[in-house]
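Exam revision sheet. Question 4 asks you to relate a sequence to its structure. Input first:
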Amino acid sequence: MAYFDVFNGDADGLCALQQIRLADPRESTLITGVKRDIALVRRVEAGAGDTVTVLDVSLDKNREAVDGLLAKGASVRYFDHHFPGEIPNHPGFSSHIETTADRGTSLLVDDYLEGRFRAWAVVGTFGDNFDASARRAAASLDLTADQLGRLRDLGIYLNYNGYGAVPSDLHFAPETLFARMRPYADPLEFIERDDTFDHLENGYRDDMAKAERVGAERETPGAALFVLPAEPWARRVSGVLANRLAQECPDRAQAMLTRRNDGGYVVSVRAPINRGEGADELCRRFPSGGGRKAAAGINQLPDDLFDDFARAFAEAFPGN
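Answer key, structure tokens:
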């Protein structure tokens, strides 16, 4: 019997897996990638008697590969909060999928484990920009304001690390980052004893300083669209910049369009926090688009669809 852990390389995927393996500390084959590399299940070579755990990647984007594993006799348990499409009805498939607007995969795993490693769930939830949900989850942990702030920072930095076109854009490959996290049941201890936090914090601050010099390309009362250059720092910062602007302007949607080296754009969209939905519906209107209600993206928006996207974005989020 072999075990496979398939997880998104962002904060939510990492912290979901951290909880799973703290509760059940067995060796497994890790399959992951940059945040937007979500068609991961097809890389799993599992058969009868094997167990595959999938965390924080869309079932809709992996359905064919999941069906193939089930047909070979593997068991698949699936934790996710993105649009799933049709969920398999198969005895080997265990579904922990919810698409509510304010809960990520880390909180789904927290429910499954009955809060055993909730501090890590709080980190992942902050990383996914669900600040209110993270604070509610943290209420039972008796943390000081400073400790809660440190967990929030860690979530943001882990999420920031996941963005890039290729692993070389990242400060740490996700599997390396998980290996550093794995010994620590308490994320505050991880922050204090491992230099990962300081490394990511310095990179985040440097990249955000560059990003703050970029103004909105198009702006309406309900939506702001930014265009970032085809540079590694821009690829790293696109998602967390959108998250930060969403927190600062909770009634306005944000779109970050980062130029690709091969033409077109990578798109990150955040629905207004006070609305919490609409990002996935917008992005699924374009090829390679998908995501969740509050945050979604398009992996490759062609240049000739820029105006169509800008118009659709403004129409989807007209403001009050």
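Marking note for examiners. The chain has a mean pLDDT of 95.
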